[in-house]
Amino acid sequence: MTEPITAPTQPPPAPAPAPPSANAGWAVAALMFFWPLAFSAFTHAFNVYPLWAAGNVAGAHYASDRVRRLGQLSLWIFGGLLLLFTVLYAIFWWCSSPKATACSTTTVSTAAIAATNGWPPLPAG
């Protein structure tokens, strides 16, 4: 008996990769913590799906990664500004307390400086 002749079979096509996450949460974090970065973050977040649908998988992954990096950068900037504010607030609070002698300044008149150095007094006027 002979076997029937069949056409060679091709493997089924590979399934399309799933679209990357738009990382919209990181875009919202950029909006809340350092809003100037939110413009770019939301632009990249809204470009993820159209890039993926057009077949540009690498571009979609880049846009997704960029959103995440911008959101994280906004958190780092916010943390740095918060730390700077806290340090400056502590310094000014310490200098405003009555016990802080290191921050106090003394007022010296120009007449006292002139008399100490032997200069003639400044004319009034």
Which structural category do the helix and sheet elements fall into?
mainly alpha
Q: Approximately how much helix is present in the residues?
A: 55-70%
> What is the strand content?
under 5%
Got a strand count? 0
User: End-to-end distance, in Å?
Assistant: 128 Å
User: Main beta sheet: strand number and arrangement?
Assistant: none
**Which residues sit in consecutive blocks of at least 5 with pLDDT less than 50?**
none
Number of contiguous helices: 4
**What's the Cα radius of gyration?**
34 Å
Number of domains: 1
Order of helices and strands: HHHH
The pLDDT mean sits at: 85
SSE layout and pairing:
Blueprint: H1 24-33, H2 38-53, H3 57-96, H4 110-117
Helix pairs in contact: 1-2, 1-3, 2-3
Could you list some keywords that capture this structure?
4 helices; single chain; 125 residues; mainly alpha; rod-shaped
State the gist of this model.
With 125 residues, the protein is mostly helical. The protein contains four helices and no strands.
Please characterize this protein's 3D structure.
With 125 residues, the protein is mostly helical. The chain has one domain (24-117). The chain has four helices and no strands. It has helices at residues 24-33, 38-53, 57-96, 110-117. The N and C termini lie far apart (128 Å).
